[in-house]
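G., the chain you wanted modeled:
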Amino acid sequence: MPTPQTRKAFLQIHACVLLWGFTAILGKLITLPALPLVWWRMALVVLALACVPRVWRGVRALPPRLLLAYSGIGVLVALHWLTFYGSIKLANASVGATCMALATVFIALTEPRLVGRRFSWREMLLGVAVLPGVALVVGGLPHEMRMGVLVGTVSAMFVAVFGALNKRYVDRADPLTMTAVELGAGTLALTALAPLMPLVFPVFAGELLVLPSARDALYLLALALACTLFPFALSLVALRHMSAFAAQLAVNLEPVYAIVLAMLLLGEQHELTPAFYGGVAIILGVVLAYPLLVRPRRLDHVEVLATAEAKDMTL
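Predicted structure as tokens:
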């Protein structure tokens, strides 16, 4: 029988996943293009962490090689968020959340090589089982939204790579320090890449330092603080009193929360066809089956929990 602490941890981790589900909704509500949206989100989190003395002490203690590694991962995080919100802008929040479930496929391919563990055919077969769902999702979308699926798939690839790298380096620094370095490097990378966007990625081109409106500023603060820093801290508390299996199962529900929220708050069910939701059902069925069919591995930190915005926590 679960203890009161375990029940509390279960509620806490689901609260975190629900907050991560709101990131797709906020991405749709914020009127800024994907590039300044991501820049402001990262900059606000870094600014908040800069007020924590423990973070400064941690940064000063990092050896140069590790500082460089975290900075490189931070660039991948920035590209993930850029493509994630680009997918939402090109399609909608439901499409962006669904694409993130594809990270399971890419994780099965990349994690063994990057982390040095044995390749799992069972994970690979689960990844392949997602593909019919992807076909239905694409076929169930209006033609003008299909670019959003392509961009969202690229975003899921970035999740798999930086998630595996974070797992490799997670034990070598304080989590808040690691987050600050990665997001700081990501902010600088976007600043440097902004002038090249019209030539390299025209779909993401836009003025970087545009000031958000009052409404967008409130949404950005909610995105950076309520949907990033707060669930990060809360999930660390919850993981002290629950198993890796329970945590992974909860995080796998994030796309479900995001899609339901998009239907309730944005009315996106009117934009999509039954074929889309049939594909979503297949994808989420595979994702939810993952912890049931694959032996749970030890989760050293919340950073390795996520495949989508919990990827916030893979920071």
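Residues 4-312 form one domain.

Shout if anything looks off.
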